[in-house]
Amino acid sequence: QVQVVESGGGLVQAGGSLRLSCAASGSIFSLNAMGWHRQAPGKQRELVAVMSTSGTTNYLDSVKGRFTISRDNAKNTVYLQMNSLKPEDTAVYYCNLMAIRNYWGQGTQVTVSS
User: How far apart are CA 5 and CA 95, in angstroms?
Assistant: First the structure.
């Protein structure tokens, strides 16, 4: 059974930084791409960043240059470093292990005050 658990959310002022972590249990972590998604109230969930097993990354246009996704396969953990945060980044952030089926964490709230 694969479990995915996010941590690191919180309240931060605009311009500040947060680092989200996502730990996945099981042996399939290093074999699959990992992604971070977010969902703001009243909006659809959107893909923020994704990293393949080879290290290739892709980002939502609005976070390019501000967010960085990274992974540590030895720790079965993926990170999302978020800098220069804006109020519009406020959302619940979800980690996603992209295997044959998708595994999702419970989400972590990020709130950016103006």
Answer: 8
The burial class, CB within 10 Å (0-12 / 13-18 / 19+), for 114 is exposed
Per-residue pLDDT tens, the chain, 114 aa: give them: 889 999 999 999 999 999 999 999 888 887 899 999 999 999 999 999 999 999 999 999 999 999 999 999 999 999 999 999 999 999 999 999 999 899 999 999 999 999
Taken in order 40, 65, 33, 105, the sign of the CA dihedral is negative
The 10 Å Cβ neighbour count of residue 102 is 11
Q: Whose structure tokens read 């996010």?
A: 6
> Which residues are CB-contacts of 54 (< 8 A; sequence separation ≥ 6)?
none
